[in-house]
């Protein structure tokens, strides 16, 4: 078996990806990947070698990713907009022997001090460098002229990807995902009415260096034989043009993208007429924005829940009756428990930490046995750190991250609950809530708000709004107005940066 084989069964003439308006069929993609695999082998890359992918959403990423998997090497997707220091740290942490760098990341790569990552012996550039190439630099297109090389068979537990976690609760760590982990989650994504079909055109705006984009958008779509429209930068106006012109039928997106669409009042009501499936995840979706999308565009978002350590998806509401606020039901082949602080299952309706078990659960954090032991139990349960409740029908409702819990005078406050209330105010476009030290109550609630410029609002107004909807101890004692909130590549709020 090999994860790279997901592109093999599909008709040669069917379009697999569209990148920079250039379509690539499955037949062409298979040829490119096989030749690139031969070119990489010619450079001396072998099974187990770790290779950084510092690429934006495009064919260079897709070709490289599948070629590395087929070679038995390990792909290490990195954010192409990361500063040089972060790239140095991450490449050094995984011991990368080579990197693929596209033009979107060239400036950041140029600032990298190669002396800090001596393991990187080969740099593959997607466009030729000016003048004489530096030692160890290879042109990507030259590798595509190599003789095709067949993919190797690997065991299911063979390491396929090192994916750095989002860092929402601390410094990012490299999660070890095997061929079996990623394929299992692709298979678990088969739902009766919410699955991707071969005839679909999938909007690929989520970054491929994030697990949602890598294994849900790219992996699942290619396995089903669909077409992925790869998008490098999101802009609501341009996105709606592309959706209409390309006949996009499936749109997976993080909440910030959908929130932007929900505020696009000038967009025509039929802007999403071709779309049959609208998906969101990576962070809690504001219910107010979901209802605005339904009212204005007739789009009903199917929210799901997942995390890097579970190869992405754990639950989905795709194909289920619409219940705003719920992340749906657990996917087939995955076990989920809601657990209290003593490790016992909570009763229905009570909040508990989500524990996940299944073949999609990762192998641990690279070279971090203590951190791995904190999240993986001896019998295979993944402690997610996320808190949820379930109803009598089996629908899951996220409450918050256990690590983000704010304790005010001994009372628990979940930031997401406060954020949901603030997000319902017409003047609030985005909001992030954190706990801050307080001399009398231990902690206090502080909100960071991105205001809608069309409505005037001040701190007192928003605090009073909360007081009308929440218990007093849950209300923010301070509201700060900011231009934007810190988010990772997948759109998830980075609370630690607010703190």
Helix run count: 14
CATH class of the largest domain: Alpha Beta
State the CATH superfamily name of the largest domain: ANL, N-terminal domain
Strand order across the biggest sheet?
A: 4-3-5-6-7
Briefly summarize what is shown:
The chain is globular and about 70 Å long.
Can you characterise this structure?
With 499 residues, the protein is an alpha/beta fold. It folds into 3 domains: 3-154, Rossmann fold (3-Layer(aba) Sandwich), CATH 3.40.50; 181-401, ANL, N-terminal domain (Rossmann fold), CATH 3.40.50; 405-498, GMP Synthetase, Chain A, domain 3, CATH 3.30.300.30. It has helices spanning 26-42, 59-71, 84-94, 106-110, 140-143, 179-188, 211-224, 236-246, 255-262, 287-297, 369-375, 415-423, 459-467, 495-498; strands spanning 15-19, 22-25, 50-54, 74-77, 98-101, 122-125, 137-139, 159-164, 174-178, 201-204, 227-230, 250-253, 277-280, 302-307, 312-316, 329-330, 335-339, 352-357, 364-365, 382-390, 396-401, 406-408, 411-413, 428-438, 442-451, 478-481. A 5-stranded parallel beta sheet has the order 4-3-5-6-7. The chain has a 5-stranded mixed beta sheet with strand order 12-13-14-15-16. The chain has a 4-stranded mixed beta sheet with strand order 2-1-11-10. A hairpin with a 3-residue loop joins strand 24 and strand 25. Helix 1 (26-42) crosses helix 2, helix 6 (179-188) crosses helix 7 (211-224) and helix 9 (255-262) crosses helix 10.
Features:
499 residues, alpha/beta, Rossmann fold, GMP Synthetase, Chain A, domain 3, 3 domains, 5-stranded parallel β-sheet, 5-stranded mixed β-sheet, 14 helices, 27% helix
